[in-house]
Amino acid sequence: MLSGIRVISFTHFLQGPSASQILADLGADVIKVEPHGGAFERNWTAPGRFIEGESPFFALGNRNVRSIVIDLKHEQSAEVLRDLLADADVLIESFRPGTLDRLGLGFDVLHELNPRLVYASLSGYGTSGPYVDRPGQDVLLQALSGLAAATGRAGQDPTPVGACVVDQHAAVLGALGILAALHGRERTGRGVKVESNLLNAALDLQIEPLTYALNGFEPERSAEGISSAFYKAPYGVFATADGHLCISLTTTAALARVFDDEWFATIAPADEWEQRDTINARVADHVRRRSTAEWEAHFTTEKMWFAPVQDYDAVIADPQVLHNDSFDEYQHPRAGTLRVLKHAVTYDGVRPGIRTPPPELGEQTREVLAGLGYSDHAIDALIESKALA
Q1: Distance between CA atoms of 53 and 338, rounded to whole angstroms?
Q2: 116 shares a domain with 36
């Protein structure tokens, strides 16, 4: 769907590469500009372990893209960069705010060079403001945005989410903004500057609880493990005799029937909020008496809103996850078979897959420059000068 759209990606870590990969999955020609030595994510992985020297962190966000190596500070790279961007459709960058401006690649300069260019900046807090120089990283934004404080039991420490949800949501919002700008350009002929940042993404993830808070409702974390400061019981994870189940949004009348316990029916609807911890505790007492499988069968019959609490091994084998065709794999010359998540959206029932695996560092430097009209001699000279690699 994005065939014919060229994206120049100055990105690293997770937010930027993931946003670029979304566009690449949709058919855009994404050219990843890397420094000598490669982008950060080539040389880092959260567990500190690599697969035959290859980073799974790089594998998760760089499929379907091409890699070139350019020293952005080298005096001979300026002309190459201008040629690269002169007829590009999108520039996407995730440097600290102001970095590309200092390199002569700011929005105003490039918009004069290429008025149709959509210029997307992905940052931690935005491109201006009191926090502009702070480090932007997922768990830091979970803390700052209130997400960590909203998670966990009353009286216990705030609890960050166990995945980089802010990074990934910011990436999706960035890609959404780019697609909107490309659509708008079809009418106006003019590219615009798109900005997505981790702080906005973290707030957007909390659209419901923050709306309550903005309108005067006081959040109250539950001592009994209700998973939202604004929801009635039962809502959250409960221990069974041999595992855990999650239960959501069930009336007290239904609870009385499901658990054969008339106590629940004595709670008036107007009192459900005040009694939510008591209700949750009583549900927990019932649930812990039987096995997960027994409750799954019973809850299914009773049409309860529930789900098993699965670890990653169970998720990977889950029949609905597999039915949705959620995973892909490719053969790496050194690491062997690498498995990754697919693009999350289907189009006419198909999820875009891997056209090309994540590239070797600078694998397409010659190919890209040749496409810009550079001769072999000129490319050799630039590589010899260390402007490119």
Answers
A1: 13
A2: yes
Q: Is 261 known to be catalytic?
A: no
Task: Identify the sign of the CA torsion 27, 195, 19, 37.
Answer: positive
Predicted TM-score (pTM) of this structure:
0.94
Please list the helix, strand and coil fractions of the chain in percent, rounded to the nearest 5, in that order.
Answer: 40, 15, 45
Q: Which of 87, 167, 271, 348 is catalytic?
A: 167
Residue 267's domain spans which residues?
235-309
The answer for residues whose C-beta is within 8 angstroms of residue 130's C-beta and 6 or more apart is none
Comparing CA positions, the residue from 306, 279, 275, 266 lying closest to residue 290 is: 306
Domain boundary among 309, 335, 353: 309
pLDDT tens, residue by residue, 247-301: 999 999 999 999 999 999 999 999 999 999 999 999 999 999 999 999 999 999 9
pLDDT at 71: 97
In a domain, 180, yes or no: yes
Q: What does the alpha-carbon distance between residue 1 and residue 28 come to, in Å, rounded to a whole number?
A: 8
Mean pLDDT score, 85-112: 96
Question: How crowded is residue 133: how many other Cβ atoms within 10 Å of its Cβ?
Answer: 11
- Residue 360 gets which letter from DSSP? P
Q: 66: burial class by Cβ within 10 Å (0-12, 13-18, 19+)?
A: buried
pLDDT given for residue 386 in this prediction: 97
Q: Give the chain's mean pLDDT.
A: 96
Cα–Cα distance between 96 and 132 in angstroms, integer?
8
Q: pLDDT tens-digit profile of 171-207?
A: 999 999 999 999 999 999 999 999 999 999 999 999 9
Under 8 Å between Cβ of 21 and 339: no
344 and 300 in a single domain? The answer is no
